[in-house]
Amino acid sequence: MKKLFIFCAAVFISASAFCQTDSAQENAPYLKYPTIPEFTLYKAPDSTAFTREDLKKKKNTIFIVFSPECSHCQHETEMLTQNIKKFKNTQFVMLTYLPYDEMIDFYKHYQIANYPQITMARDTKFFFPIYFRVRNLPSIFIYDKKGHLKKSFEGDVKPETLLAQL
């Protein structure tokens, strides 16, 4: 009887652990509260604060969580900058939680200063990776002109796919 109880307890604990991983993404804060959250980031190149209030009104917003050393993130940035003219009514917020020096090197390498639609910033509080439950990089989150979540993606996404969601 004791062995049966221990076996059942082990099965229950294992099953609940596996259920947690599947439901964790479903319970992600960005899905529970599908509007742009309050946040504070620090912009490149000067570390000035950037908040939700600094977003342009009546424009689509695309958040891209990236790592400067990630090859997929580098490829996504190349595709984005090459096709930026197609995104006339869209603002991009590229954010990383990695050190400031790495972000600035990436900012300079891809000449982000030449693209006023793109704000690159550092998430010093690690807010967005938790809020979006980031599992892969880049992670992309599209919000419409009213600030409501439309779609999310993980990994490389072609500009045409992003445009189709706007």
Topology:
Layout: H1 2-26, H2 29-32, E1 40-43, E2 49-51, E3 60-65, H3 71-82, E4 90-96, H4 100-109, E5 118-122, H5 127-131, E6 139-143, E7 149-154, H6 159-165
Parallel strand pairs: 3-4, 4-5
Antiparallel strand pairs: 1-2, 1-5, 3-6, 6-7
Please name the defining characteristics of this protein:
single chain, 166 residues, Glutaredoxin, 2 domains, 6 helices, 7 strands
Brief sketch in words of this structure:
The protein is α/β, with parallel strands linked by helices and 166 residues long. The chain has helices at residues 2-26, 29-32, 71-82, 100-109, 127-131, 159-165, and strands at residues 40-43, 49-51, 60-65, 90-96, 118-122, 139-143, 149-154.
